[in-house]
Amino acid sequence: MSRISPSEDIRSVTDLKRNTREILDHLHTSGRPVILTVNGRADSVLLDVRVYEKHLQAGNLAKLLAPAEQEVEKGRTRPAREFLKEFKRAKKIQG
Questions:
Q1: Which pLDDT does position 1 carry in this prediction?
Q2: FRET label pair with 10: which of 53, 75, 77, 93, CA 20 to 30 Å apart?
Q3: d(CA 16, CA 38)
Q4: DSSP tally for the chain: helices H, then strands E
């Protein structure tokens, strides 16, 4: 996703009401979020659904990795070779 363009990506809710199709087309074409303003202040953000799904996937992956990162921070690690030997023994894998 490229950087937000203030002149193109910040729109008022009133502008959204008047130009919905144009704004949505721009959103889908650019892949950039559209920031909606109310009374001149940022209020909401519109995202293309594919971009939103990617953000969800990234967030879910981060949640899965967080416990492992905490283990590393606490020094609870071991060499990969040691783990693989133990894993192969436990699963009765040859080689």
A1: 59
A2: 53
A3: 11
A4: 5, 3
